[in-house]
Design a protein that fits this description.
With 369 residues, the chain is mainly α. Among the domains are: 132 residues, no CATH class; 31 residues. It has 12 helices and no strands. Helix 6 crosses helix 8. Keywords: Coiled coil. GO terms for molecular function: microtubule minus-end binding. Pfam families: HAUS4 (PF14735).
């Protein structure tokens, strides 16, 4: 049953790329790309089902409702505090302006009494507030300088002066606030500063609406800026991902091209070095011929060539004779050690015969003389 509901929710959101776009729009703070959703369809379905239960910030619907209520209560408390704080600061500003004005010009006695009474009431009220125990704790706070709120309250001005101050306060406060609003209007629109009082008062009635529009416009621009920031981050991630793919492809192309070019280059280098080696050999032969021509005459070279040919013929004959002797010797070695004694005896007899022939030859030559 739950699977059917999740499937229905997914179908409501969309299919394929449309589903991915809506999931990304529902979770702008989630660092997920469309490629991640495509590679992980189950995770994409999970996010699609979560869009029915959570908002863009990741809060559940009940928690978001409670958070909105708490935010409304907080805003109400803030407005109350700001109202009282603005009133208090406005009264303090009035007192400060009166002190400055009193030092520069002559102030009427009734106006001076009004501001002194108001300042005294503010100070006493502030002291009483500090002396009161906190309403957020059940423990009693220690007294400051041993004073109680009742003792400080006795320092209030006379009731008559307080009544006069209260009667004149709304008019003076209204005048002060109006001057501040006109100053704000002049700051917001400097070209309206030279307008008449009635026209500025009329425009002042529309100042809150203008400021509210500016505030909404600013919030809209902030939201657009945040959306553009998220979009820029996603596009940056996509750009880097595509850039990495392009770099890898470029590296592959460079490697393949380099290997192909390297093979052709090696083959050309081999042909070049072979030709160069052949040229060096020819040059060496040429140098040898030139050395021979410088050293020997043509007749000497011809004679040396004939001598060389004759020596090579004799060397070839000697090698053939040596080979024949080695064959005979190998055939004699087959007979074993018994033939070795006969060979030695034969050799000794040959030497004796040669010696006797030589002696006979010498003797014959001596007789002829």
């Amino acid at each position: 049953m739950s699977v059917g509901l999740e499937t229905a929710n997914i179908l409501v959101l969309g299919k394929g790329d449309n589903l991915h776009q809506q999931v990304l729009a529902s979770f702008p703070l989630c660092d997920v790309t469309e490629e991640d959703l495509t590679q992980n369809p189950l995770f994409s379905k999970l996010l699609a089902s979560l869009t029915q239960h959570v908002d863009k910030t990741g809060l559940t619907v009940p928690l978001k409702t409670e958070l909105d209520k708490a935010e409304q209560r907080l805003q109400s408390q803030k407005r109350q505090w700001l109202r009282s704080e603005s009133l208090h600061r406005g009264l303090q500003e009035m007192i400060q302006e009166h002190c400055v004005r009193k030092h520069n010009t002559e102030v009427p006695p009734d106006q001076n009494m009004f501001y002194e009474t108001m300042e005294r009431c503010l100070r006493v009220t502030q002291c009483v507030r500090h002396l009161d125990p906190s309403s957020t704790t059940s423990q009693d706070q220690p007294l400051i300088l041993g004073l109680t709120p009742q003792q400080v309250t006795q320092l209030m001005p006379s009731e008559k002066n307080v009544q006069r101050m209260r009667q004149a306060l709304p008019r003076q406060l209204e005048k002060h606030l109006k001057d501040k609003c006109l100053s704000l209007l002049s700051y917001y629109q400097p070209e309206w500063e030279n307008e008449s009082e009635a026209l500025k008062t009329n425009k002042l009635s529309h100042l809150s609406t203008l400021l509210d529009k500016e505030k909404k416009r600013t919030e809209l621009l902030k939201e657009i800026c945040r959306e553009n920031t998220v979009l820029l981050q996603r596009q940056t991630q996509l750009y880097f991902s595509e850039l990495i793919k392009c770099i890898q492809l470029l590296q592959t192309l460079i490697l393949d091209h380099k290997l192909k070019i390297q093979t052709d280059l090696d083959r050309k280098k081999l042909v070049y070095f072979e030709g160069k080696c052949e040229l060096v050999l020819q040059k060496i032969k040429t140098e040898m011929v030139e050395v021979q021509l410088d050293t020997y005459s043509p007749d000497t070279v011809s004679a040396h060539r004939k001598i060389r040919e004759k020596l090579e013929c004799e060397l070839k004959a000697c090698k053939a004779e040596k080979q024949a002797v080695e064959l005979k010797l190998s055939s004699f070695e087959i007979l074993g050690k018994a033939f070795e004694a006969l060979a030695e005896e034969y050799s000794r007899l040959r030497q004796e015969i040669d010696m006797k022939n030589w002696a006979l030859k010498e003797l014959t030559q001596y007789d002829e003389k």
